[in-house]
Amino acid sequence: MRHAVQRRRFAVLSLLLAATVPVSAVEPPAEVAQLSAVALRPLDLEGVDLQPGGIAAGTKDFAVTDTAGNRVVVAGGNGTVRLSFGSIGSGPSDLLRPSDVGIDGEGSYYVRDYGNGRIQIFTSSGRPKARFAVDDFFGFAVGPSGTVYLGRPQGGSLVTAYRASGEVARRFGSLKKAAELYPRGYRGRGAEDDLLLNRVRLSTDREGNVLAAFAFAPVVQKYDANGRLLWETRLSGAAVEQLVSLFAADESGRGKKFLRMVLDGRAANLVQASVTASADGSRIYVLLANHRVVVELDSKGKQLRTLRLDFESTGTTPSPMEIAALGGELVLIDMFGQQLWKGAPPP
Amino acid sequence: MEIAAPTGSPASGVLTPRRRLDYNQNRCCAIMNTKSPKVVLLIALVLAVSAALLVAVFASSYTRPSQADELAPEWSDLRQRLEVSNGRWLLVLYTQSEPHRRVRYLDLVLERLRRNDVEAAVITPRDWRVAAAAEGEHRQRGRSRLVLDDGELASMLGLPLQGRDSGELLWLLAPDDRLDLHLAVASFQDDELRQVLEKGVLGEVGGAEGTRAVALSIDDPFPAVRVREVATDDVVDLAQLTARYFVFFTAECTGCSLSAQLEMLAEATASPAAGELAAVFSSRFGHAEVAREAALHHVIAPLYVAVDELPGIEDLYYSKGLFADAVVAERSGGRVASLQPLRALLRQEVVR
Question: What is the rounded distance in angstroms from the CA atom of residue B121 to the CA atom of residue B157?
């Protein structure tokens, strides 16, 4: 029986495996250089050495998971560390390779405890509160009321909503076929695409609406807290079109591999890396993969502008993968440089 | 599978042939509708015996996962087998990959923890490759031990057998045989082993921070370490090498960025004037891995893999390089004359 238990644990861990691999650099189209820029500078957390995995903003602070340090660090916008909790292990307050993080309306922290295959919930002071086991998902967000949204197309819908007890509250979001996401250029691989193309990055706004950005297509959706689709928009612009063509060409076996997301037993060029809503909910920011570009939408899904991310020179080329909005600023994680950055979008 | 046992219970098996099946009636009604009291009694008796049997079979065969986790091996037997006395912390790591590197790293951690009541054992399935290498390892044996297992320990620990599953498991036993920590992942990072030991033994992760290493500075004595030449497998002192520039490669995680770094190295060594440059890789890199990648990228500089930690260049205890990038150190008069990132070197074309 112990063998069976161990095997089950291995199986869960292997299901959770998802990784991003930078393969080669692709220069963004020339138009990107002409865009308005967000000037980003490194955000130091009082010298705390961490390997940031996921980020979420609250009203005054933001939380970032330290994947290597097996903890969560909470800091203010100026980098002042307010709280740090968690350490390696599998007990109630322990974490093992934490990745995503979310904050509810009461300030509780929801952490994807990746290595232990569970969601851990901590109080606003970092004390363990509840936990539940989950299997494979990609896309994580927490609503103001504490509903946990996970991208789980294998459940038959884009998103599965969980109560803090781990009980499934609802499922929503219709799965899309390649022809819907790629009206031209990419015909799809049939059933092989069913999961991959429906992998979404998730976020919530202050009203509890859920934002879903398709990882492999330039499509963003907004649902209300009950799972009703409010709108869907397709991003446009030179940077978007280049990413779309790189994805489609690679899937057709002709294109260049650049920023690969390994999911569902496949590796594919990522299109949308992350999504977040501004603190007041009036703006939505979609971080595109590879190009260091953010697309700004209004709360109705209208594309307002595309912003170039200008990173203060550090001798490296950042690859931002996670984004959060704290106050009027954006905070980003450069996953490969293991660095936090922040800056305000121009008016 | 065991959980499903009640639904296919012997009770239904007894009833089915005797009664006229009416799927709209429940079992209770089927029994009550039977007219003969003897038949009712007989069925009741058979039901009772069946239920008792079912309970016995179920209890013996099904164990909830949480209970299974509590079914600890006989830790005292394990201690005896590993020759670790009671009253000492014991970290046991079961792995099927890189057992020697694990042993070296755990030795380093135990040394840095400065505690005499901690031991570590790396258990790995015996195969010819490990067995051959183990001889050399035992000759320079530190505090951690490498145990080649024929299956006895795996069985004692309730582990999957070799080849059936991959992954690593870790147990930290307190001196009183209390299981302090138990983790399973596909592959542990070195630094996670440090955190486990610090948390268990010192009660605080980062408890040994006072020992943090300091990065090399200009005018410091040049690192004196033993290195193994990739081409010949000879071990030499760095001081014996005649190169003026040394490119040091460290790694947060082995192999993650080696390919990109070697591309830069290949570019830096493309010119004939690059004869003054040698590349030294952290001991965290495997000898074969460096050779393979170097050939792939057509690196022509002499390549070495450090035998020990590179002082001032990396802090193996924390599994960290002390410089953000591969660093080029210039040696002059046995001291460090200059330090710069490899990519800066490429821009300035110092070597060329």
Answer: 13
Of A269-278, B175-184, B257-266, minimum mean pLDDT range:
B257-266
Question: What is the distance between the alpha carbons of residues B33 and B28, in angstroms, rounded to a whole number?
Answer: 9
Q: How far from B23 is each of A216, B16, B30, B279, B324, CA to CA, in Å?
A: 51, 11, 10, 79, 73
Q: What integer pLDDT is reported at residue B220 of this predicted model?
A: 95
A40-61: b (≥16 Cβ within 10 Å) or e: beebebeeeebbbbbbbbbeeb
What was the pLDDT predicted at B49?
63
pTM (predicted TM-score): 0.80
Long-range (24+ apart) CB contacts under 8 A made by B264-267 are B264/B326, B264/B342, B264/B343, B264/B346, B265/B297, B265/B299, B265/B301, B265/B326, B265/B342, B266/B297, B266/B298, B266/B299, B266/B300, B267/B346
Containing B10, the helix (H) or strand (E) segment is: helix B10-18
Confidence of residue B35 (pLDDT cuts 50, 70, 90): very low
Which residues of B fall within a CB distance of 8 Å from A5? Answer: 65, 68-69
pLDDT at A291: 84
Residue pair A250/A260 in contact by the 8 Å Cβ criterion: no
Nearest chain A residue (CA) to B341:
A315
Task: Look at residue B23 and tell me whether its pLDDT is greater than 50.
Answer: no
Q: Residue A32: which of A323, A294, A301 has the closest Cα?
A: A294
Question: Could you tell me the strand order of the sheet in which B226-229 lies?
Answer: B235-237, B226-229, B303-306, B277-281, B245-249, B327-332, B335-341
**Residue pLDDT, tens place only, B47-77:** 666 655 554 444 433 333 333 344 456 888 8
> Higher confidence at residue A21 or residue A278?
A278
Q: Mutate which of B181, B202, B340 to test chain A, going by most A C-beta atoms within 10 A?
A: B181
State which amino acid sits at residue B50.
S
**Residue B249, H or E segment:** strand B245-249
Predicted local distance difference test score (pLDDT) of residue A15 = 29
Per-residue pLDDT at A1? 33
Q: Which residue has the tokens 């792939």?
A: B296
User: Quick check: A104 and A93 in contact, CB under 8 A?
Assistant: no
Joined tokens for residue A83: 């709280």
Q: Confidence class of residue B24 from pLDDT cuts 50, 70 and 90? A: very low
Give the B window 144-203 contacts with A, CB below 8 Å: 158-160, 164-167, 169, 181-186, 189, 191-192, 195-196, 199
